[in-house]
Amino acid sequence: MRDDTMKPNWLANANIVPYVCARWENRIANSGLRHRFSWFDRAPLMIDPIRLANQGFGELQMKLDKLAFGGAGMNTPRWAFYDCGVMPGLITGFACRWKKLPKEIREALGDDLGQEWAPLSMFIVIPSVARGEWMAHNLCSINSILPKEKRYRGLGFLSKAFGLWYANIDHLYGVTQWDSPALRLHGNFGDLELVTTYTPVHTYPTSVTYRSRVDTAVWRRLFDKKPREEIFQVRYEDSGLEINPKNETNLKDMQARLERGEGPFFLSGSELLEKDIGEKLKIYVSQS
Question: What CA–CA distances, in Å, run from 179 to 76, 163, 276, 278, 286?
Fold first, then answer.
């Protein structure tokens, strides 16, 4: 991203820093070398999650997760946080000095639990058996409980972006629901390829599994007042097919097409931003 005028003001706040919460064995030796992105120029706070001194930070992360997902009954169980995040993966995000937190965030988190820093966001990513591929496990931020005028602009997006940048991730898998606003965000880290459109093995069958080819050149879409898509238009063309997130029969039909090898199919990041959640979306294929 070449234009730092789009950079959110809170990134320049000396009391807010990116963090990496990972066992020493899981830390990336040559972090941040694969992707060019000038916004992550501040050294991250490094936290070993299995040290007792850092237990409070983990408790605050789980509190953040509960604030974001508890209302929908989708908060992460403690064992899953440990088994799927702490032990095999990386947990990244942004943290703020407790003493500098706005009052409403301090009240929501409850107690500093002996920690100097409090997580504002959390992104958990897990390495896959397939070389160079990772699985996104969790993404949440304090923005989910803040009124619009007090939110940290782009916090969730930049938390995930920082994790991808730090870990030098090229290919990322993830799962979200077709009716989730998060789909708009996930579609703008790189070209979004559909892996499943109907997923009955998941708790929520109408979930979409996607594969992102991480590309920092498109990260500006979320911050540019006039998002452009020249790169996508050169690479892909309209297939003539549409997907209807509200029509389960249509989702199953697209799943059948994928299983017959008719893809790969892609969604447009710009179209996801422009349309309301639940609207029909065009399906794209690689330029012939």
Answer: 20, 25, 10, 6, 26
